[in-house]
Specification:
The chain is α/β, with parallel strands linked by helices. It folds into three domains: about 170 residues, FAD/NAD(P)-binding domain, CATH 3.50.50.60; about 110 residues, FAD/NAD(P)-binding domain (3-Layer(bba) Sandwich), CATH 3.50.50; about 110 residues, FAD/NAD-linked reductase, C-terminal dimerisation domain (Enolase-like, domain 1). Strand 23 and strand 24 form a beta hairpin. Helix 1 packs parallel to helix 8. The structure holds flavin-adenine dinucleotide and nicotinamide-adenine-dinucleotide. The site of flavin-adenine dinucleotide has 36 residues, from strand 2, helix 2, helix 3 and helix 8.
């Protein structure tokens, strides 16, 4: 006989969608239970956003020190070239993850959320059983929030194991691969592949489409392509992996590029060809909710087709981003508590933490054109921004671009590429969310010297009265 718990709100999955939903529900006085098979934090905190940004920082720091050792610039010299201990870097990264996961546990406790550890299996839409360390628990809920996230997509030709790894394994490597092949030059491939290249691995990308980061417009991606070229990273586009052969300690990847066949030798093969919703192994088929392709179908309030069953985050579709998951989680908790809410953002910012970083919020000029919107644009180069130059960040071809409606100057898109550009994403999103016009941005006094000054400069350029270019 398993213990039986009744709860008002049951959240399945403790990632940025689920844990935020649970905290907010608890804060609102709802009796809330969260089930998580792993530690709280989800893909993002444990093996995604946070660990990858830590590794990227290690790569950037190491490269900067190498430049100093070569006496390149800034007048700083190192007597010897630096060395990197990947095991030490991973320990540092794990410390950050432990600290943040512990912090999430503390917040859940403070909000009065009951946390059950183990894997949930549903027998019907409102009942599940968890086989945890303390034995089996059956939970019956008035409301269920599904936040089971996503798992890596795999390629049948490249079965995982024996050196064929995904992002989670790449983030736990304690020895630097000498030769790394990355299949898929999207978010994960480029972020991790660039970090390993900086640390000294010889990296080759194998990308099926005709360019890297096919989701971003070409102008934004060009500085990243140039960075890869300068760092000796090989990029094979229009290339598809056919199979892998284990060869002694190494691997041989067989691929086709156009009509030509080719073989690449490597120590590790990172497969980063997208993620798919986590819909299997927990009884979703017994919940009778409608699907939207591979994703759980939801409306603008994240309601599924089953009454009082809600779904959020990667499980419900693109964009598969942590901040979208959290925003949906916070909203659903408020809806359950009886507040009036809907998920209708004007734009969801996306950042690719490559070198240089790419920020995309709202419509690019091309996308606006496809929607029949007549636009004006203004662009400002980071090379003309004092703060960027003082941070040695003006020489990577970066820029900020504002796109606005030609008729009323309402801003419909803000895009940037450049070192540290991710930190500008919040202001970009705020401007679009609040319906700013070019004159609002141009009329807001920005601190000097900061990189944020590039935004009003781009707005002035769009208004035809640029000052610093
Ligand atoms: P998840 O974070 O996947 O959490 C789901 C949780 O549910 C997991 O902890 C899982 O253990 C648990 N679970 C699933 N099924 C059950 C069950 N039956 N019982 C109990 N528990 C269960 N996004 C960004 O916005 N910025 C980034 O920089 C970024 N970097 C990334 C880097 C990498 C390498 C990866 C892989 C992803 C990255 N992402 C990033 C994407 C981001 O991690 C996801 O969008 C986000 O984690 C989705 O949140 P979620 O709550 O929907 O699901
Ligand atoms: P992705 O969709 O960003 O990129 C996958 C790439 O693999 C694409 O360029 C695609 O054309 C290519 N591809 C697909 N099949 C292929 C094949 N057979 N051979 C060669 N190339 C192939 O997916 P991802 O990089 O795995 O990331 C998954 C998701 O995780 C992202 O879509 C994003 O939602 C999230 N993520 C976000 C961030 C961030 O916000 N900074 C970082 C990492 C991951």
């Amino acid at each position: 006989m398993s213990a039986v718990i009744g709860t008002q709100v049951l959240v399945v999955g403790g990632g940025p969608g689920g844990y935020v939903a649970a905290i907010r529900a608890g804060q609102l006085g709802l009796d809330t239970t969260l089930i998580e098979a792993d530690r709280p934090g989800g893909t993002c905190l444990i093996r995604g956003c946070i660990p990858s940004k830590a590794l990227i920082h290690v790569g950037a720091t190491f490269e900067a020190m190498q430049r100093h050792a070569q006496g390149e610039r800034l007048g700083i010299a190192l007597p010897q070239p630096p060395t990197v201990d990947l095991a030490g870097a991973v320990r540092w990264k794990d410390g950050i993850v432990d600290r943040l996961s512990g912090g999430v546990s503390g917040l859940l406790k403070k909000a009065g959320v009951r946390v059950v550890s183990g894997w949930a299996r549903f027998s019907d839409a409102k009942t599940c059983t968890v086989d945890g360390a303390q034995g089996a628990v059956t939970i019956q809920a008035e409301h269920v929030i599904l936040a089971t996230g996503s798992v890596p997509a795999t390629l049948p030709a490249l079965p995982p194991g024996d050196g064929v790894i995904g992002s989670a394994e790449a983030l736990a490597l304690t020895e630097l691969p000498r030769r790394l092949v990355v299949v898929g030059a999207g978010y994960i491939g480029l972020e991790l592949g660039s970090a390993f290249a900086r640390l000294g691995a010889a990296v080759t990308f194998v990308e099926a489409t005709d360019r890297i980061l096919p989701g971003y417009d070409a102008a934004l991606v060009r500085p990243v392509e140039q960075w890869l070229g300068r760092h000796g990273v090989e990029v094979l586009t229009g290339a598809r992996a056919q199979g892998v052969i284990r060869d002694g300690d190494g691997l041989r990847l067989e691929l086709r590029q156009g009509e030509a066949g080719r073989t690449l030798s490597c120590d590790k093969l990172l497969v980063a060809v997208g993620r798919q919703p986590n819909t299997e192994g927990w009884g979703l088929e017994r919940m009778a909710v409608d699907m939207d392709g591979a994703f759980v179908k939801v409306d603008a309030q994240c309601r599924t087709s089953m009454r009082n069953v809600w779904a959020i985050g990667d499980l419900v579709g693109e964009p598969m981003l942590a901040h979208k998951a959290s925003a949906q989680g916070e909203m659903v908790a408020e809806l359950i508590a009886g507040r009036r809410r809907a998920f209708a953002p004007n734009a969801i910012a996306a950042v690719c933490f490559t070198e240089p970083e790419i920020v995309a919020v709202g419509l690019s000029p091309e996308q606006a054109g496809e929607q029949g919107i007549d636009v004006v644009t203004g662009q400002f180069p980071l090379a003309a921004n004092g703060r960027a130059l003082t941070m040695d960040a003006g020489g990577d071809g970066g820029f900020v671009r504002v796109t606005a409606r030609a008729d009323n100057h309402q801003v419909v898109g803000i895009h940037a590429v450049g070192a540290h550009a991710s930190e500008l994403s919040g202001e970009f999103a705020l401007a679009i969310e609040m319906g700013a016009v070019l004159e609002d941005i141009a009329g807001t006094i920005h601190v000097h010297p900061t990189m944020s000054e590039t935004l009003p400069e781009a707005a002035w350029a769009a208004l035809g009265r640029a000052i610093h270019i």
